[in-house]
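Justification of computing resources. Each target in the renewal requires a structure prediction run like the one illustrated here; the chain below, 279 residues long, is used simply to show the kind of job we budget for.
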Amino acid sequence: MRLATWNVNSIRARVTRTVEFAVRESVDVLLMQEIKCKPEQFPYAPFEEAGYHVEAHGLNQWNGVAIASREPLEDVEIGFPGMPGFAKGYDGPDAPQEARAIGATIGGIRAWSLYVPNGRALGDPHYAYKLAWLDALRVYTRDALAARPDLALALTGDFNIAPTDADNGDPTVVAGATTHVSPPEREAFQALLAAGLADTVRPFVPDGYTYWDYQQLRFPRNEGLRIDFVLGSPAFADAVAGAGIHRDERKGEAPSDHVPVVVDLDLDDPDDDDRPMIF
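Resulting structure tokens:
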């Protein structure tokens, strides 16, 4: 199975490019973030014509997540247990939830497409929301793996955190001054790993970024961030046979500011024997 995650930054604006990538790269499962549309506005037809089933979750022109799969999606879940919400004027557990998480089981893999809150600025209410959201994700992960240690769990998507200095090549993103690299955010990311997950891409791709801001020639200067991940439980990580960051998808006409992150899984399926490797 080939699984990819991609913050597409508006699926309606980039549906042709997204589907062409999935078909060209033989992607079996594509987990998307920032689709920026409601489910009824999602461009299903091009995906279905290419042989994909799609489940989408969006509330307005912001946020939004979706999963496209060549195999049927089972046990689709909107939001993980305990996921907090956010809205101006709300304080407490009753804040409305945003469209930031969708999960499904595909071929025995429990996969989540996640769009972690940005945080906006240190001290902003959205920053506290981000940390609370990540802690709830940690608790969900811990509990899910405690209940089923053999669960092949994949948390994928845009985490809006560069967990180490090697993941930050943007000179405007400064520890102690901006989000994405603050100690509490990095500690929250490490807590996710401690809950039973592994970064399944870095062992195969020792360097490289997944996001470059549109401003100030960030991409030509390679001043990017690695903030998009495929984190996996032991049962999932043990099946990862290769991985890649598709940097060239940041090129061309009207690209997303993120690029796809891909992993190949060896699930002992003879139908996957002819999949091209992506080391």
